Queue: 3 jobs
Job 1
Amino acid sequence: MKAPRFAYARPANVAEALALLDKHKDEARVLAGGQSLVPMMNFRVAAPKVLVDINRIAALTGIKVSKNHLRIGALTRQVELERSADIARHLPLIAAAMPHVAHPAIRNRGTFGGSCALGDPAAELPACALALGATFVVAGKKGERRIAAEDFFKGLYATALKPGELLVAAEFPLPKPSYASAFGELARRHGDYAMVGVAAHGSRKGGKFSDMRVAFFGVGDRPQRASGFEKALEGQSAVDGALARLDTDLAPRADLHASAAMKLHLAKVLAARVLRELAA
Ligand SMILES: Cc1cc2nc3c(=O)[nH]c(=O)nc-3n(C[C@H](O)[C@H](O)[C@H](O)COP(=O)(O)OP(=O)(O)OC[C@H]3O[C@@H](n4cnc5c(N)ncnc54)[C@H](O)[C@@H]3O)c2cc1C
């Protein structure tokens, strides 16, 4: 099937993009890598009247390291994250996640911001943003606002972005020296969205878990931290005693791939594996 008819605009900067989004309101959609939006339009799941193509806006691209944080521009291609020496050095969690995001051809065009703005509950990058305590930078008619990753993902394909707003970047605090991270997911085929996934980040000072942030994806309507599990890990040297807390932290729903009980089982297996890897 082909997409329904739409108008197309290619703004040169953020101000022009915001003016277009404000003018066309609910009828406009941002076009980034197009790897999710274009298939959705072809399947007629989405039918925007106006596409606002942000691909020429240089200010939205790139990875920058400053004193306290690493900033990823919304239009940064997923392949750039995969190959970046700065990401490998400062945010190895994202480097570990990237090979699991779709396939190379999709990562060549797909963007960091597109993945986060889409809000797919089984996507890798939103879970990494949550585990790493990222802050999203959003621009709108009234200026910029900052939204913590915890408050950004609102539900199934729903985020805190309001109509007329553009996701500009995300800022990640630079991890302190004793901090480590690990990533794992189970998918039916490599490159598919995860059946269940875990992104974990925290301190291992003195051989004990501390300040852990453990984000699960593919188990609910959005990426979510397991707060009881994180608390139970505090001060522990091993993961096993904390795993039972996932029974109350997570309430997975059955989907095409697995029953709810199977997802909970897989989440526990994966959490144990990922936390042991982090500890090592
Ligand atoms: C076969 C296949 C397999 C895939 N597997 C995976 C996978 O395993 N894991 C995974 O995470 N993803 C997967 N994807 C999705 C892929 O990663 C997409 O690239 C990503 O979800 C969307 O990024 P994009 O840049 O292509 O965004 P687009 O498709 O251009 O946009 C997606 C949505 O985000 C909005 N948007 C984009 N950028 C902004 C912005 N800056 N501000 C506000 N709104 C914005 C758009 O309006 C649209 O609603 C897969 C896709 C395909 C086709």
Note: The chain has three domains: 7-53, 61-173, 181-279.
Job 2
Amino acid sequence: MSLRARLAAMSLLLAAVALGVTLTAGTANAHAARVSVDPAENAAVATGPARVRATFNEDLQTTFAAMTVVGPDGNLWTSGQPQVQGPVVSVGVRPLGPAGSYTVNYRVTSADGHVVSGSWSFRLTARGTGTPGPAANAADNAPDDVPVWPFALGAIVLVGGAVLWQMRHRS
Ligand SMILES: [Cu+2]
């Protein structure tokens, strides 16, 4: 490969990296960030809360909010639909059952249109008398907010690799 081709490939890669960094930096702070949760993360409670809520640093869109509470038995322990009020998303909780870890999963839409999802857990220390809702399926467990940069980096590597391959086989 000639020096010229090598330089061209290098500058293309650098441009792609710079673009990826710019895109990532642009979206990193734009959407809603969680500022507090109730019950607190990893809190130990003797009785279940009537509601669970997550508060964000800006108002959320009121549509398409999802929030579930999954118990140590793998069942859903929420009752009713999630509610969005300003920066707070919350959902009602049934009287809880087995002692152990309960995980709250949520998916909300920021004012800028970005979907933010995540989860936290709290622990019930004494068995309650409640009965569960239906079994939670895997789709209800919202994954953590997926960062964009691994995909951008992957695309850069693929594009860069293709360019280098082409240059190598042309000369
Ligand atoms: Cu955003």
Note: The chain has two helices and eight strands.
Job 3
Amino acid sequence: MATPAAHTGWGSTRDGRDARYGQAVVTAGQGQPAAPAGAVLTALLQAASQEVPAAVALRRELHATPELGGHETRTASRVAAALGEPGAPSVTTGRLVRIGAASGPSVAIRAELDALPLTEQTPVAWASRNGASHSCGHDVHLAALTVAGRAVRRVGGPLPLVALLQPREEGYPSGALDLVGSPQLEAQDIRAVIGVHVHPHILCGQVSAGPGPVNAAYDEVTITVQGRGGHAAYPHVTRDPVLAAAHVILALQHLISRRTDPMHPAVLTIGTVQAGTAANVVPEQVVLTGSLRTFEPADRASLWSAVSATAGATAEAYECTAQATFTQGEPVLDNDPALAAAAAACLAQAGLRVAEPLRSCGSDDFAYYCTRYPSLMMFVGVGQPGMQDAPGLHHPAFLPREEAVEDVARAMLAGYVAACSVVLPGAAAGLGWAPESV
Ligand SMILES: [Zn+2]
């Protein structure tokens, strides 16, 4: 896996002044955010409301024709066209659409292009029938980004907006790594990145924009338990890897409950068990796969080695062997405190209630942007009261209501204006360029 570039803050000089413009720049996490630019946000929200009907239609279109990670070219070009730039530059199967001045500092908003390999189970006429499904709400995010982008194109804005149409959020290697550190993204002079994800654990009309770590680091583990196969009637001449693997699964559970500080969130889930082909045969090997989620870098390192040691020692007790290999996924998603504070005020102005910060052991490759730029991931509520058991993210029947398109767009615009006010205090009070017709 590629290693993301180091965090470089706001691109300011050591004395806190912007190298290119000589303006004071707030360093991530320091100082108070500038007051939200009420007039700019109001104008953007008014323009956005006119874009919503077309975006809802686009959401249905994207939902009906989803594409899997690594194959999102049609989705990307459709969204780029809706943003007013069908020829926007590509980065693998993603696109970058810049709205506003062609050079100088900018603020980016990320939306994911990919769907999941699920057979959709919703009753709507625009349900997918191609074996892929937007069961994570990415269709909503994309449609909402066209609302935000078109509003900024129409009204103008304090800083250029770069729409990051990102591929492969759901897969590995992560599509965020296509963008982070790429020459195409570096050329955009990005000073802050905003992400928004729908979330069914938050009620409609509410948004979580908590500072600090909100999502876990994610790794995948594959454990191969090797035994000696043979006839099920003569187990004494075999070394049964199924029995050994069963004990490995149980033994691994103590690593979280007994070996990890209970004040440090961590999860180890074994998600697949592959073993055998017949009821009367002891197989040669069993393959387990699982996911490991942590918030503390030290826990991540120690659990990798503890998983290997525990699996190996447990299998050995059954005269089998176990080998663990790891695929490192995204780091902890760490929201910039200054962006979070500024966004809270803008969200209220956008008619959205700021919810209690949502922190979970979920993961998102938006975390890679946090390693390079001050970044903020917000979670927009799509939950209904009394419907806690409704299908959630990644369920084939998950279907956010259509009003979510406008809610997500409003959150994106609030995040954009908030980021402008933090990156260049004072600039957000005015419009940085002449609006364009769309
Ligand atoms: Zn998602």
Note: The chain has eleven helices and 16 strands.
